[in-house]
């Protein structure tokens, strides 16, 4: 099987497509804590302007990778570049352009949300003293905390704490924003707000890296995905390409299911009945040929759509144990 030009699957498996401009990259990244290997040979590419969702089971190395990317932890081995700067040695040059919320926000419990944010703003190298009040109010308004800004942080709910942490990441314009589980503790309305903010950042050309366990949110907000398992990257690429990386199929909605299936078999096109129609296998035939065969066979075609693997199914397939019968190894390729 082969990969599409935009996909890279497993360690050392890549294509010859021109390399995109990258906001961040790692090569051979490895982190060992005593006898525990937290991250092992991670090669991660974060395209500039993308919204990349980093997925993986608990303990897969997501947060450790993010911490090394931001220069918070020094790798045992490997290289890290952030906005063209080598990390952690050049972190002072890169980090002013990066907003981050990692492993939950940490603020003073007896100060209000506004006071906490003002203290954080005072440490921003690109904010003058006179600009701090306006920057703080704009950030609070953006994350929906303006009405609760006077309340002490210790009285905030988990979702409000997440919002304040996000406000801290957005105090000044950024080239890149890194969010570790940004919807943790949020209700559906709060989750929609985070989705809106990520969409606004993307529209402004900001690169966003999101670590999340909510697959539906990743599918709704991200343009790219990287899947980690046992400390290594098992798949990365554009989300649409990954979702179409299973066995290619065309789902045809028709009231003439039996006739459609018979027509497919006459043209030696593998197919099967599905609710409201048939599914044709596209391994050896193009979609237009399937539609033409069905129409010529007198089948009433109401709707045609390319079948896509759901992110939940893809995630399960990529992260199940190698010993399982249908598991993918780290170097398996997925056809597009």
UniProtKB/TrEMBL annotation:
Family matches, as Pfam families: ABC_tran
> What are the entry keywords?
ATP-binding, Nucleotide-binding, Transport
Q: Which SMART domains match?
A: AAA
GO MF: ATP binding
Q: Repeat: present as a keyword of the record?
A: no
Occurrences of domain ABC transporter (ranges): 24-255
Give the top-rank taxon of the lineage listed in the UniProt record for this protein. Bacteria
The cross-references to InterPro entries, in alphabetical order and at most eight, read: AAA+_ATPase, ABC_transporter-like_ATP-bd, ABC_transporter-like_CS, P-loop_NTPase
Q: Which family does it belong to?
A: Belongs to the ABC transporter superfamily.
Q: PANTHER family under this entry?
A: ABC TRANSPORTER, ATP-BINDING PROTEIN
> What is this protein's record name?
ABC transporter ATP-binding protein
């Amino acid at each position: 099987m082969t990969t599409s030009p935009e996909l890279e699957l497993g360690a050392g498996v890549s294509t010859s497509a021109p390399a995109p401009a990258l906001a961040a990259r790692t090569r051979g990244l490895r982190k060992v804590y005593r006898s525990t290997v937290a991250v092992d040979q991670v090669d991660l590419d974060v395209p500039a302007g993308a919204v990349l969702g980093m997925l993986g089971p608990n303990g897969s190395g997501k947060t450790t990778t993010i911490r090394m990317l931001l220069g918070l932890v020094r790798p045992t081995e490997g290289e890290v570049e952030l906005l063209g700067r080598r990390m952690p040695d050049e972190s002072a040059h890169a980090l002013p352009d990066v907003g981050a919320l990692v492993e939950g926000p940490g603020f003073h419990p007896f100060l209000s949300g506004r006071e906490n944010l003002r203290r954080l703003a005072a440490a921003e190298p690109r904010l003058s003293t006179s600009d701090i009040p306006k920057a703080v109010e704009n950030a609070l308004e953006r994350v929906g905390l303006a009405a609760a800004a006077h309340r002490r942080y210790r009285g905030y709910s988990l979702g409000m704490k997440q919002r304040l942490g996000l406000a801290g990441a957005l105090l000044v314009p950024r080239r890149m924003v890194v969010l570790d589980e940004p919807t943790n503790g949020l209700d559906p309305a709060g989750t929609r707000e985070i989705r809106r903010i990520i969409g606004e950042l993307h529209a402004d050309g900001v690169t966003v890296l999101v670590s999340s366990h909510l697959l539906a949110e990743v599918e709704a907000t991200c343009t790219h995905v990287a899947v980690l398992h046992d400390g290594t990257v098992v798949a990365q690429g554009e989300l649409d390409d990954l979702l179409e990386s299973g066995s290619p199929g065309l789902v045809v909605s028709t009231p003439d299911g039996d006739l459609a299936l018979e027509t497919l078999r006459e043209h030696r096109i593998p197919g099967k009945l599905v609710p409201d129609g048939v599914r044709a296998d596209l391994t050896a035939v193009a979609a237009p040929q399937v539609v033409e065969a069905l129409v010529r066979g007198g089948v009433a075609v109401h709707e045609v759509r390319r079948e896509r693997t759901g992110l939940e199914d893809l995630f399960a397939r990529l992260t199940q144990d190698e010993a399982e019968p249908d598991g993918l190894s780290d170097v398996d390729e997925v056809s597009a």
